[in-house]
Design brief:
By secondary structure, the chain is α+β, with helices and mostly antiparallel strands. The chain has helices at 4-11, 56-68, 84-93, 106-121, 125-128, 134-147, 172-180, 185-193, 196-201, 244-252, 254-283, 289-296, 318-329, 355-363, 381-397, 411-422, 432-440, 446-455, 460-467, 471-484, 492-507; strands spanning 2-3, 16-20, 27-28, 30-33, 46-49, 73-76, 96-100, 151-155, 160-163, 207-209, 219-226, 229-237, 303-309, 338-342, 345-351, 369-372, 404-406. Helix 18 crosses helix 19 (460-467) and helix 19 (460-467) packs across helix 20.
Length: 508
């Protein structure tokens, strides 16, 4: 048995989205289709596909009927799933509403849902041992038989997910692709210059690429889509132009591959959510470090918590940036770093021995703000996370030069910042208020001049350089400051108190 939430998780957010969950029967037993003009029998735990729903009235009636017979959920396409009347009916009938992507084909969805139910009913250790790519390799072989040519199945980022047999009949570009499990950059550039990826995004059924001067053999490419989203592509190395009927047969295999890609992505999303929850609990100090280490196979030794400010970048969308950063954090760093997201900030737990430096080099040029806590044992990850947050706050405020800050490297700034926070209530005491009042009635240089003079004792040239003025100008301004300030600047305690107040003003 599998729950309704489990079905949605396995199918994935590309196709299904829970709008309202009022069901009293979360266990799913079957998938049924409501046909136009027929009152289809509904049983407890059914997922009911509202294929015949033509309007809000039909949707409300179907929801009431399904609720009366104990259905788990009603699946509707936009705009019916989000209508207020439908959601109200669902609440009263105690049934869930699931929205189906507008571009998804009902026939494909039925096949996918039933395959999810079958897999849940027949799940075993033996089937798990096959791994996430077992079916894809068989599909690659099947597609190769249809087109009579070696085939690769690639995701939307040109990473190889599976490939067929007979790759010895290909060219160096294909061999490099399989060996590296992704299309090499120079090969990508050649195909991009020929407009291949532009054609993939336009919705073509098949794309033929002739042989190239460097010896690259012709390709027949089929995009893999579901619900209007490009999930990947299949690439066949062919001897030349392919007859239309054979090319069409090759393209007909794409929907089946798309379903497998969606299932794979849903499984990975589920595993990623589980990992994220485990990491989140440890970073908040409520989880078991031993459990996290065992389940996520964290390397032995000290680790750092790395905080990445996702919101500090990219006007194109924080969610897209977040996904891209997760992908970058989970690739090429030996054992995969554990990643989670809290309050718009990405956190990664990486081994201090090598892992941190690789993360640092990976993200330092990406435009994000990156801060790391000190290396700690797994039981102290909450402390490292607090330190990463503190260093990140300095980057955000511009108090340290970015885009990367290591907690132990910015200790001097941290000391002043903490002192400023602790001294927040002392800025109104003493003669400094009079100097601040003069700033409000003048060009505003009194307080800044005193601050830099105190920061560079006995070095007027350094103080003047910090203010970007001539040393003689500094001396003139300090004579005005001394005359306006009712304080003896020859007293060490007076100078220290004033500097404390000035630091608090700047860093609060």
């Amino acid at each position: 048995m599998i729950t309704m939430q489990g079905v949605v998780d396995r199918v994935g957010p590309t196709l299904l989205r829970i709008i309202a969950d009022h069901t009293e029967h979360p266990q799913v037993t079957d998938v049924i289709i409501v046909e136009a003009g027929k009152r289809t029998p509904v049983a407890t735990g059914d997922l009911v596909l509202g294929i015949a729903v033509a309007g809000a009235t039909d949707a409300v009636e179907l929801v009431r009927h399904c609720g009366a017979h104990g259905a788990a959920a009603v699946l509707l396409k936009p705009p019916h799933a989000t209508r207020n009347a439908v959601k109200t009916a669902a609440q009263r009938a105690k049934v869930a509403i699931i929205e189906v992507h507008t571009g998804a084909a009902w026939a494909q969805l039925v096949w996918l849902l039933r395959s999810v139910l079958d897999a849940a009913a027949d799940e075993s250790d033996a089937s798990r041992a096959e791994g996430p790519f077992g079916d894809l390799f068989r599909l690659a072989d099947a597609a190769a038989a249809v087109i009579d040519a070696p085939v690769t199945i690639e995701d939307a980022n040109s990473r190889v997910l599976a490939y067929s047999a007979r790759q010895d009949r290909t060219d160096p570009a294909r061999v490099s692709t399989i060996m590296g499990r992704r299309v090499p950059d120079d090969v990508l550039a050649r195909f991009r210059s020929r407009g291949v990826f532009r054609e993939l995004s336009r919705g073509r059924t098949t794309i033929f690429v002739p042989a190239q001067r460097d010896g690259t053999l012709p390709r027949l490419i089929v995009p893999i889509r579901m619900g209007g989203e490009l999930l990947g592509s299949m690439w066949a190395v062919v001897p030349g132009p392919v007859p239309d009927d054979r090319a069409a047969a090759f393209a007909d295999t794409a929907p089946v591959v798309a379903l497998h890609l969606l299932r794979r992505r849903a499984r990975e999303d589920s595993e990623r959510r589980r990992s994220a929850e485990l990491i989140r609990s440890v970073l908040e100090g409520t989880g078991s470090a031993r459990l996290v280490a065992a389940e996520l196979d964290l390397a032995p030794g000290e680790h750092r918590v790395v905080a990445v400010d996702v919101q500090a970048q990219d006007p194109l969308g924080a969610e897209g940036v977040r996904l891209a950063l997760v992908q970058r954090l989970t690739e090429g760093i030996g054992r995969r770093p554990a990643v989670t997201d809290m309050h718009g900030v990405l956190y990664a737990v990486v081994p201090d021995d090598g892992g941190w430096e690789q993360v640092r080099s990976t993200l330092a040029t990406g435009g994000a703000l990156v801060a790391a806590g000190s290396p700690v044992e797994l039981a102290d990850l909450a402390r490292s996370r607090a330190e990463a947050d503190e260093a990140l706050s300095l980057l955000r405020a511009g108090l340290v030069d970015g885009p990367v800050a290591l907690h132990e490297d910015v200790w001097a700034v941290l000391v002043l910042h903490r002192a400023a926070v602790a001294a927040a209530g002392v800025t109104a005491i003493g003669p400094l208020a009079a100097l601040r009042a003069l700033d409000e009635d003048s060009d505003g240089w009194y307080v800044d001049t005193l601050y830099e003079w105190l920061r560079h004792p006995g070095d007027p040239r350094a103080a003047a350089a910090a203010l970007n003025i001539h040393p003689n100008t500094l001396r003139y301004r300090m004579s005005r400051v001394t005359g306006a300030l009712d304080a003896d600047l020859t007293e060490p305690d007076v100078r220290l108190a004033l500097l404390t107040q000035l630091v608090a003003l700047r860093w609060q």
